[in-house]
Amino acid sequence: MLVNLWTQDRGISVLDCATQMCFFLILGTTECLLLAVMAYDRYMAVCNPLHYPLVMNQKVCIQLAVGSWISGVPVQIGQTCQIFSLRFCHSNRIDHFFCDIPPVLKLACGDTSAYELSLCVVVLLDAAVPFVLILGSYGKIISTLLRLPTARGRAKAFSTCSSHLLVVLLFFGSATITYFRPKSSHSPGTDKLLSLFYTIVTPMFNPMIYTLRNKDVIAALRKLFLKKF
Fold first, then answer.
1. How many structural domains are present in the chain?
2. What is the span of the domain harbouring residue 32?
3. Residue 199: which CATH number?
4. Helices 113-123 and 73-84, interaxial angle, to 10°?
5. Banded model confidence at residue 224, pLDDT cuts 50, 70, 90
6. What are phi and psi of 86, to 5 degrees?
7. Could you read off the pLDDT of 100-138 as tens digits, one per residue?
8. pLDDT of res. 111
9. Residue 46 buriedness (CB in 10 A; 0-12 / 13-18 / 19+)
10. Are 88 and 107 in contact (CB under 8 A)?
11. What are the residues whose beta carbons fall under 8 Å from the beta carbon of 33, sequence distance 6 or more?
12. Fewest CB within a 10 Å sphere: which of 104, 164, 174, 222?
């Protein structure tokens, strides 16, 4: 992106486009799985605090993190190869700011319904399943919070989940609207705007959302603003 903005060169080769799409899909899958793993971590911390150190030990955390990073790699490489094995006979202009699947499929010749169906299956496996697991975890968490005797205890327990929940809503909300809207309601302008949320806005806000819960960061920010004002 920085190179494109600096040089104003918006051209991209087919190989570069395929590479970009592949990395985008792999990292998107990793994000979905990591968010599901983090939801499970919150569930264990709130619902089973006494078992938490035993269940979520260092070995398990490493296995869950590594599994999240590598499990989407073969599927998304296959998905990318399948898309770029198509014959492209329309305009070579991609009406998007990166090589996403829907705008690339629009350039393909013939019927692409089989590829769109396979895309839906992959999205269901890589995004819908983790989202259902996240919903299940938060269902259990909310049930546990409602049984806590004091409001202070509920607020403290909820504070451990608030940052993660906000990221989940930002990421899955924009991605769901983008990929699960009816085809008739798709427009290039809206697709680009929604894509900005889960490709740029959410990753940009992630560090701020997570670190604002850290007391040291809040204290440092207070000092910074008090010095200026």
1. 1
2. 1-227
3. 1.20.1070.10
4. 170
5. confident
6. -70, 160
7. 888 888 888 877 888 778 877 887 888 888 999 999 998
8. 79
9. buried
10. yes
11. 67, 68, 71, 72, 126, 130
12. 222
Instruction: Return the SS3 of 120.
Output: helix
Write the single-letter amino acid at 89. Answer: C
Query: Would you state the structure tokens that stand for residue 188, as one six-digit string?
Result: 């290039």
Calpha distance 130→34 (Å, rounded): 9
Residues paired with 88 in a beta bridge: 108
Q: How far is Cα of residue 46 from the mean position of the Cα atoms in its chain?
A: 23
- What mean pLDDT is reported for the chain? 83
User: For the residues of 138-205, what is the DSSP string, one character each?
Assistant: HHHHHHHHHT-S-HHHHHHHHHHHHHHHHHHHHHHHHHHHHHHS-GGG--HHHHHHHHHIIIIIHHHH
Structure tokens at 150: 């004091």
In the chain, what is the straight-line distance between the N-terminal and C-terminal CA atoms, in Å? 35
Whether the CB-CB separation of 14 and 84 falls below 8 Å is answered with yes
Q: Pull the structure tokens for residue 5.
A: 């903005």
Q: Which of 177, 146, 141, 176 is nearest to 162 (CA)?
A: 141
Query: What would the pLDDT profile of 140-180 be if each residue is shown by its tens digit?
Result: 988 888 887 777 777 777 777 778 888 888 888 777 776 66
